[in-house]
Amino acid sequence: MCPTKRPFLAVLLGLCTWLEPGKGSLPLHMNSMIQVVEMLESHYLDGNLNLTVTELARGLGCCDSEFDQLLLGEAPAVPPDLPFLSQEQRSFFTRLMKHQVQASSAEQGVVLLPDGTTVAVSPLMAGIEAGLKGLREMPLPPVALEPLLARTEPPNQTYPEPPLTIDVLYAVTIAKDLGMAFLLAQANESQVPMGPNGCWDSVYEPQNFTLLGRPSHLTDAFVNGALDGVILGAHLAGQAAPAAPLGTLLRQYYSGGGLAGDDQARSNFRRKNFVQLTKAGELEEQVARSLLLLRALPQTAPLFSGVGNEELLAIASQAVQEFTEAYLECPAIIPRCMWEARPYKGTPTQLRLPLSFVYIHHTSSPSEPCRSFPECAAAMRAMQQFHQDDRGWDDIGYSFVVGSDGYMYQGRGWHWVGAHTRGYNSKGYGLSFIGDYMHTLPDTFALTLVRDNFLQCAVRGAKIRANYTVHGHRQMVHTECPGNALFQEIQSWHGFK
Ligand SMILES: *[C@@H]1O[C@H](CO)[C@@H](O)[C@H](O)[C@H]1NC(C)=O
Ligand SMILES: *[C@@H]1O[C@H](CO)[C@@H](O)[C@H](O)[C@H]1NC(C)=O
Ligand SMILES: *[C@@H]1O[C@H](CO)[C@@H](O)[C@H](O)[C@H]1NC(C)=O
Ligand SMILES: *[C@@H]1O[C@H](CO)[C@@H](O)[C@H](O)[C@H]1NC(C)=O
C-alpha cells in the first residue's frame, strides 16, 4: 500500500517498496493482518496447513505463558515454516504475536484499526482461541486453592463444594493482566498500573507505535485487544454451528457491518458491548481467581511473596474499580495525533481545574454527523484549519468534539483554555457534537456518551466540580447553537440550568 497522501510521488519513484525494504514493511494495520489470516485459513482448509490460525499464533509465541498453557492447552511446539507466506507476511505475523513495551515507550505487538484505535493482538487471539474451543468455566486446580483454605478454613477441610471455577475467556484476555498490573504497581511505587494511549508514526503506513506517557503493564492498546477478545470469544463460544471463517469475523467486527449484522457489534462500541456482556461482580471474581492461580504457578509465584489472601482480594477489588472507571465508564477519546492535528499556535493558557461549567455546542458545519474514523478525523482537521486560518485562533476552538462513530475526539483537551464560548472560555469546557442539530438529534449513543459517561468521568477525574452546570451555547452568546433540537434535549440533563 502506498501512502495515500502522495500517491503521485510514490508511483513516480516506486517509493512504496524502496523506502522500507525487507523486514516488517507491511503496515501494522488490521487490514494487513486480516489478509494474512485469510491466506492462512485458505491453506488450512486445503490441507496445506495442519494448524488453525489461533493455534499457529500460539505456536509463534502468542499467549504461551504457563497460565495460558494451563487454561488454553499446550501451544504447538514447532510451527510449520509456512512456505506459502512471503517473508514479509511471515515476519509481520510473527512479530505481532508478542506484546511488549520497551523502556523507550515503543509498544510492540499492536495494530492500528480502521476505527482509529489500536489493539494488542495477543489478548485478542487468546479470546478467540478460548471462544473457538468453547472454553469457559474450568475448575481452579487445587494447588491454587490451598493457601486460600489454609487461612480461611479449619485444617483438613475438603475443598469447597462446588469447586471454585475460573472463566477461561475472561482469565486469558483481561483478568490475568489486570490483576498482574495492579500487583506490579503495588510492589513498585514508581509504576503506574494502567495506560497510556499512544501515537503511530503514520496513520497511512503505521510502523511504530509510541506511548504518550509512562508505560504500564496494561496499556490502552492491550485493554482494547482484551475487550475485543472477550467480545469475539463470547460470540464464537455461543455459536452452535461451525463459525464463519476468522477472517470474515474480523472484517465484520473491525471494518464491516458488525457481528451478525448488528451495527453496534463493532470495535467502535467495545466498551458498551463488554459491559453488556459482563455480569456485575463477574470481573472482580475472575481477577481474584486469576491471581490465586498466578500465585500458585512457578513462573509467577515469586511476584507474590508476602501477598496473603486478604491482600490478594483487595488488589482484585481495587484493580476492577479503577479499570471500570477508566475504561468502561469513561468515553474513549481519540487523541490529536490520530486525527493528525496541526500543532497549537503560540503558547496555550492552562485551565484552573476543577471547572464549574460545560457548554454544549453543535458544529453546524460540518452539518452531517460523521460515522467513521476517516470522516470524523477529516471533520476535525477541517475545523482546526478553519479556526486557525480563517478565525485566526491558536487551535481548534472546542475542548472535545463528539463523533457519531462511538468516539469523542480531543480538541484542546482537559488542560488548555479553548475558544468556544466568548467570555467564558476559562470557566468551562466546550463540547461540540459534529452535525447540525436544529431539527434532528444526534444518535442516541453519542448523546448518552456525553450525558452518562463524559460528565461523570470528568467529575471523577476532578476536571469539573460535582455540582457542575451544563449550559447551551445560546444561553451565553447570541447564537442558535447548539440547535433547537439539541438544546431541547440537554434541558433534561443532570446539571442543566
Ligand atoms: C504439522 O506439520 C508440521 C510440518 O509442517 C509437522 O512438523 C508437525 O508435526 C505437524 N503437526 C501435527 C500436529 O500433525
Ligand atoms: C520500578 O519501576 C520503574 C519504572 O517502571 C523501573 O524503572 C524500576 O526498575 C522498578 N524498580 C524495581 C525495583 O523493580
Ligand atoms: C521504527 O523504530 C525503529 C527502532 O525501534 C527504527 O529503526 C525504525 O526506523 C522506525 N521506523 C520508522 C518508520 O520510523
Ligand atoms: C459547588 O461546590 C463548590 C465546592 O466544591 C462550592 O464552593 C460552590 O459554592 C458550589 N457551587 C454551587 C453553585 O453550589
Q: Strands, helices and their partners?
A:
Layout: H1 7-13, H2 15-19, H3 30-45, H4 53-59, H5 66-72, H6 87-96, E1 100-101, E2 107-108, E3 110-112, E4 118-120, H7 121-132, E5 137-139, H8 142-152, E6 165-167, H9 168-187, E7 198-200, E8 209-211, H10 220-237, H11 246-254, H12 270-277, H13 282-296, H14 309-329, E9 333-334, E10 355-362, H15 373-390, E11 400-402, E12 408-410, E13 428-433, H16 444-460, E14 464-472, H17 484-490
Helix pairs in contact: 3-11, 4-7, 7-9, 7-10, 8-13, 9-10, 9-13, 9-14, 10-12, 13-14
One 2-acetamido-2-deoxy-beta-D-glucopyranose is lined by residues 50, 78, 80.
Quick recap:
Helix content is 42%, strand content 11%. The protein has helices spanning 7-13, 15-19, 30-45, 53-59, 66-72, 87-96, 121-132, 142-152, 168-187, 220-237, 246-254, 270-277, 282-296, 309-329, 373-390, 444-460, 484-490; strands at residues 100-101, 107-108, 110-112, 118-120, 137-139, 165-167, 198-200, 209-211, 333-334, 355-362, 400-402, 408-410, 428-433, 464-472. The protein is globular, with a radius of gyration of 24 Å.
